[in-house]
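Internal QA ticket QA-208
Title: Verify multi-chain structure generation after dependency bump
Assignee: T.L.

Test input:
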Amino acid sequence: MKIIGLIAVFLCGCLLVYGASDFPGWGDPSSPASTHVSPYYIETTMEFTHVPNIVTSVLADYRGYDTMYETTVIFGAGIACFLLLRVVKKKDPVSRLYRHKATGITLRIKKGGKIPDKSNAFERIDSEWVPYDLIIQISCRLLVPLIQIFALYVIAHGHYSPGGGFQGGVILAASIILIAISYDLRSALKIMSERASAFLSAIGVFIYAGTGALCLLLGANFLDYAALDSLLGSGMVMARSHGILIVEIGVGIAVMAVMICLYYNLSSEGKQDEGL
Amino acid sequence: MNQHLPAIIVTVPLLSAFVITAAGWLNKKLCFPIAIAALGVSLYCSISLLISVASGKIIIYNLGGWAPPWGISYTVDPLNCLVLVAVASVAFINIIATKKNVEEEYPDKIGAFYTLYVLFATGLIGIVITGDAFNLYVLLEIAALTGYALLGMGSRRAPLASLNYIFLGTIGACFYLLGVGYLYIATGSLNMKDLSAILPAIYHSKTILFAFIICLTGLFIKMALFPMHAWLPNAYTYASSPATSLIAPLTTKVMVYAMLRITLDVFTPQYSFGTIGISHSIVWIAIIAIIMGSLMALAQRGLKKMLSYIIVAEVGYMVGGLWLGNRAGITGSILHIINDAAMTLCLFLAVGNIIYKTKTDSFDDLKGLLKKMPLTMGAFILGGLSIIGVPPTCGFFSKWYLISGGLAAGHYAFVAALLFSSLVNVVLFFRIIEIGFFEPFKEHVSGHHECITDQIAGNRIMIEEAPAGMVIPLVIVAGFLIFLGLMTGNIVTSIIQFAIPAGIS
Amino acid sequence: MEDVISFVISKYNYWCYIVLLMIGLYAMIVKNNLVKKIIGMNIFQTAIILFYVSISVKKEGTLPTIIIDPVTGTHTARAADYINPLPHVLMLTAIVVSVATLGIALALAIKIYKEYDTLEEDEIFAQIRKK
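Actual output:
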């Protein structure tokens, strides 16, 4: 099997090499790809959208329709993971572990056993629990706001520098996932519940598609942000720029929520009780 | 509002998906009405689009207001309107017919199921309506990803089958993307209209040849043409019935549509069928697909798996019909896209009803079912007759066109393969009729008296016709098979003949 | 000889993409472990990203953000000065798609592991055959 696979792959590679020999040279400024459609974007981005970062303007405006589906793909992945993995029926685990904070004594409560009263003397711990590491927990907690501010910067500054909704959304999600890793899954769930992440993912994409539908209602074509001018009153060009910002914010929210949702489900096999 | 129909047809189901997610967390009862309303709007839009393009008109809709080739534009012509109506109506009817089934199979996840259901429909509608080669890829992935998730829920073996589908589906989609990349590197454009204007000047280039072949290979994997069909039978067999009866009728047909688009619109038919000289070998692949699909269907002992292999054979029909390269063959191929969608929907819905009642789909448990579930089995048999190609069901007419295309092209092996597969289908479906109708009597005579009567008595108490909500849509679909057959003349003269490029005789 | 070398070097990126693509394909065909196959799938998708991004390069071109003169506040947008932004946009989509596919594939792998207690394909098939 291995040798057959190797031969098949090698032949396939040779075919592709043969096909690639006709390509225009690497970095050739006069190749069709550099001369046919793309110069239009470079030359008109400031004039039409007032966004210096051409990737952002093409992503969210010229080809914004693709990006809407791209966000939908992410949303779909989150829902798909939920559908495939989530164990909705609340089955009590075989046993739960509780740790007495003051003495460090651990109690194993078997199924049906009585759980210690909700006093603060006990805390629930994972079965694969490693003893407290204060330094890691505190330093991660300190990092979280910095990460979040950076994420907001990446989203907001997407117009002028590399960045935008996808990148910023992933960084935002990283801050919550950091909590889940350094503490445990339940602490992260307290900050952002599953329900919240599901709602936010839907709301994020809804902001994107809804902006497009709003343009439709205002009489222009779907996703033609210039129509937002009648609401924002800032001129057609700035309306496009603002439209891009709104859309990027929607993307950021959706991506953050879905990434968190994926992490919750994948790390706990859908039980959302004990994570990694 | 009328000029915005091409946008509304995709946007409404898309927006509804987000509302359904939210509704799933608030009140599960709301999910179904929202989904059905959204798909209904889509169906309405697709029908009114079909009426407005029926005489060969073409509607172009620029998304975001950017003119092609810079922006993404929708091109609505008779060909994709016809497929749009098929996709929208299959999704619409199936959601009604499987309501009970869904409630039973996904009691806690109705919201997630309907969200993915609607997104799947959105993806397919988008593939059909789009006029941009890269946009097609994105929508292909939406349909594929939601499909993986829907097919991954079901029996024990469903996740593994679905993971295999992911591997092959990803290879297919990536090949398509790579092909688009080759087109882009050679032309600098992604818009299909623009590509077709630029391409003829550079047809001699190797890059274009590879772009064409790589795109086709990707689509062949996605549509499960014979040697690349490995993902299909298991994925469809082990998934739950509501998901199968949505995905099985649509995925392969929409991919065939995408192939039609690439070969006829992006490239010229002269290039696809003439210059590069692969049409003969592809027809031969299709012939092998038809024969192998039929033979493997014959070897199965379960209804769903048998139908899955029939789909593999049917893909061979459509691919072969297109690559015959003449008007009759292509007409047959296009007609078969909608007819096969209707037939497969009918058969899978019927099997869904049978599984709903008997909890199994193996042939042995069909004994005497014709009396217990007359309507379901009747619809199943009508679907079977249509697959065989008995007039006046729609299957007969598309097969007629395909055969006359084969004769016109002088490709007698293709004609022979079609007839052979019809014969095999006769055997398949009459075997089922025999089991469903006569089997208990035979068993009765042959000795196992008591045990069999016990079983029959047990069946009599347990099994009766499926609930009305599931049977009525099925009967409507079965009626549609005959209706489509009777309407064939109209469909061909007022729609399909405008869909075929003028150069083809 | 020189021709061959310059030919190889001038399309260096494209050869790299083909090698990566084939590594991914090999892993998907041959490997027995499902996670390895999933990784192979990811390499396969990444190879295509490399291919697209290679298209966008222009010699003498800088990254596609219009440079605004800090003093006068004006700008000149000459197409030759900036690399082609379109492939980057397309690949952002492809990256997102590959992340989504990876997520679903991993979810299915977890489901399979729960069912069979293994991710080796032959062991899974052996279990299926036994039943």
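Spot checks passed. The two ends of chain B are 39 Å apart (CA to CA).
Status: verified.
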